[in-house]
Amino acid sequence: MSLVRGTLGILFLFAATAVFAYDWPAPDIAVRKTFAQRSGTNFEPGLEFDTDSGQLTVPEKGQVIFVFSPHTGSPQNLPSSLGGFVALAHEDNLRTVVCGVVPQVPDESTGLARGELLGTNVPANPGDLTRHQLFVFDQQLHEVVNPLLVFPPLSSNRSPVILDVRVVPVTGGDSESLFAHSHCAVGYWNLYVDAVDPARIGGADISRGVYSVSAFLNGQQVFRMELTSLQDKEGQWIIKGSGQPLASVLDADHEWYLGRVFFNQGTNFLELSIKNFQGKESGRTFRVMGDRP
Amino acid sequence: MLFTMAFLSEHSSRERSGSFIWIFLGVLFVFVYLFLFPRGLGKDSFLVPVAAYPLANAPADAPVGQGFLYLVGDKEGALSPEGVPLFYRTTLAQTSVSDRYSAWFDPTADITYVQDGHSLLFHKSGKAYPFWIHNRLYFIGDQRMGLTEMDLKGNPLWSTQLGSLMTSLASGPHLTAVGTLGGRVHIFGSSGKSMLSFAPGGSRFQVIYNVAISQDEKKVLLISGLDPKRFLVLEKGGGDFRPVFHQEIKDTRPYPTPLGFLQDDAWAYYTTPRNLTLLNLQNDHQTLIPFQGELRGITMDSSSRITAVTGYDSSSLLHIWSTHGSSLLYAPFQAKDVLLFQRGQLLILIADQTVLVMKRSLE
């Protein structure tokens, strides 16, 4: 009996450590930009976060494989918004990169334990804009993974919001907001959803990207996409599992293109569901009258 | 002659005939050596200081004219073709220069400005970070995972997304080589077509630390992997690049270290914590040159003399080495930010706030 209890205890501990395998590099992380979020022509392949912590720490035991400190005299002093950063290789074939730090790791590649100092939170040059970013790469699958699937969940008291739902005739023409119009001509329409995950960080309201969007038309699923990981294929980001280019799905800031839908004559029910990265869900149902043109 | 006469008079005829044979053989050896293995008498290479200029007196702004721009430390400046300072000032963050072109990213407005001398060529909105290599302008994506080459009118020539962080970037006249954190090196043609996507193996961790491409675009150098780190030479054969030389290197530093070509791509070099390694790309002969600190600049002249600056913190050393590794000269000086380059016949050393213009002379 005690053997069974002991085994169960070990299994529980193993499960607990597996679930919380990674720690956030600072205890007070506030996510400013979410995975795959579009800003103009750029996509966030990780997370952008704020922290007041003066030190950023190792998220999980790993080997330091790359360190970058911006300095003009250094070889390959490539410019970016990342500032200084440290990349670690972990035993599970994941690699994490913590950016916006002044690296404080040894000059030689070394193994670091979880919680050890990675870098300090000080701008490399006075006046520099310090933005912290966190990336997770799966070295085996050759993809960029949503960090919120690897790191412990963050609390959120707000739900995502559908700002607008638009349809545009596939033959071209003006878009119509389903918030304002309930009649559409029978036929194919392109469907767009404007959705955000609102948050308040540092006293300012910000709009973050959402994690998933689903759409059902007359009970049939017409779209479902979750931003779990991205792969690069032929020079562009592809949403894993869908094969679709990220730029064609997120076709503008916070705007998702859901594809073509067909409105039948009479009443059509369009149901939309969105989730944020904390799993909070919002939904909306539209009744669209299909009219003969 | 006196010695020979004395020698002949004091020795027996048998001894004399034996000695004649030895003298004859000696003379023959000298003649054979002189006529069959003729050598030049050799010339010594000298670095002749031409001028020294303090940068503290240079104005903060002036036309570049026929001059060229440079970056050193957190400063940017321009020199005339003769090495005379035209201006010198603290640079804006995220500035890149090449010859007379400059570009910088303004993070407060998310705008990139590109200039030719003092004339604005174009500006572009969005988070893109400019980087010049030999008059080719690249915009590096916000997170070092995207790369776009731009023309001088602000139009993208080609663009690509990388699935990993860019760790290194090199350019030839037509090709672009990119190394990534994921351990893959990509080579793109002038229209962005992928010519190579190669992940060197043989190490516990795959990473590309540095990449260099020769000016004739036939060779690519790589520092890749960790545990162990490896140095590779890829050579173009047909339409493909293939590894033709690779070796483990004793280095565990997890960041890009100096790597490049010297003397019209005849030599390759890289550094380990204690040595500069030179590889003759014609015969794979290697030379190890010990040094301390970091390599801050290196050039090789047509007589195969290597001029380099090493050092750390504020201590620097100017060296002249032969390709056999002999130290021909070294001169210590105090400077933290150093730039050493060859410009025509001039060798220019910018050391903190001083410009030293030198000329190579063979005598």
Largest interface: A-B, 49 and 59 residues
Helix content of chain A: under 10%
DSSP, total strands of chain B = 31
| Parts with pLDDT < 50 across at least 5 consecutive residues of chain B | 1-10
Q: Cα-atom Rg of chain A, whole angstroms?
A: 22 Å
List the helices and strands and how they pair.
The complex is a heterodimer of chains A (293) and B (363).
Chain A: H1 2-19, E1 30-33, E2 38-39, E3 42-43, E4 47-50, E5 55-57, E6 62-68, E7 85-90, E8 94-99, E9 102-103, E10 111-112, E11 117-120, E12 132-138, E13 143-145, E14 161-169, E15 176-177, E16 183-185, E17 187-201, E18 204-208, E19 212-217, E20 220-226, E21 229-233, E22 236-239, H2 246-249, E23 250-252, E24 255-263, E25 266-275, E26 281-291
Chain B: H1 2-10, H2 13-36, E1 45-54, E2 68-72, E3 75-79, E4 85-90, E5 95-98, E6 101-106, E7 111-116, E8 119-125, E9 128-133, E10 136-141, E11 146-150, E12 156-161, E13 166-171, E14 176-180, E15 185-188, E16 194-198, E17 205-213, E18 219-226, E19 229-237, E20 240-249, E21 259-262, E22 267-271, E23 275-280, E24 286-290, E25 294-300, E26 305-312, E27 315-322, E28 327-334, E29 338-343, E30 346-351, E31 354-362
Antiparallel strand pairs in B: 1-31, 2-3, 3-4, 5-6, 6-7, 7-8, 9-10, 10-11, 11-12, 13-14, 14-15, 15-16, 17-18, 18-19, 19-20, 21-22, 22-23, 23-24, 25-26, 26-27, 27-28, 29-30, 30-31
Give a verbal description of the structure.
The complex is a heterodimer of chains A (293) and B (363). Chain A is mainly beta and 293 residues long. Chain A has 2 domains: 22-149, Distorted Sandwich (Glucose Permease (Domain IIA)); 161-291, Sandwich (Immunoglobulin-like), CATH 2.60.40.10. Chain A has helices at 2-19, 246-249, and strands at 30-33, 38-39, 42-43, 47-50, 55-57, 62-68, 85-90, 94-99, 102-103, 111-112, 117-120, 132-138, 143-145, 161-169, 176-177, 183-185, 187-201, 204-208, 212-217, 220-226, 229-233, 236-239, 250-252, 255-263, 266-275, 281-291. In chain A, strands 1, 4, 6, 7, 8, 10, 12, 13, 21 and 22 form a 10-stranded antiparallel sheet that branches. In chain A, strands 14, 15, 17, 18, 23 and 24 form a 6-stranded antiparallel sheet that branches. A 5-stranded mixed sheet of chain A has the order 16-26-25-19-20, with no helix packed on it. In chain A, a hairpin with a 5-residue loop joins strand 25 and strand 26. The longest helix of chain A is centred in the N-terminal third of the chain and has 18 residues, at 2-19. Chain B is mostly beta strands. Chain B has a domain at 1-39. Chain B has 2 helices and 31 strands. Chain B has helices at 2-10, 13-36; strands at 45-54, 68-72, 75-79, 85-90, 95-98, 101-106, 111-116, 119-125, 128-133, 136-141, 146-150, 156-161, 166-171, 176-180, 185-188, 194-198, 205-213, 219-226, 229-237, 240-249, 259-262, 267-271, 275-280, 286-290, 294-300, 305-312, 315-322, 327-334, 338-343, 346-351, 354-362. Chain B has a 4-stranded antiparallel sheet with strand order 1-31-30-29, with no helix packed on it. The longest helix of chain B is centred in the N-terminal third of the chain and has 24 residues, at 13-36. Chain B is globular, with a radius of gyration of 27 Å. Chain B starts with a helix and ends with a strand. Classes of the chains: A mainly beta (293), B mainly beta (363).
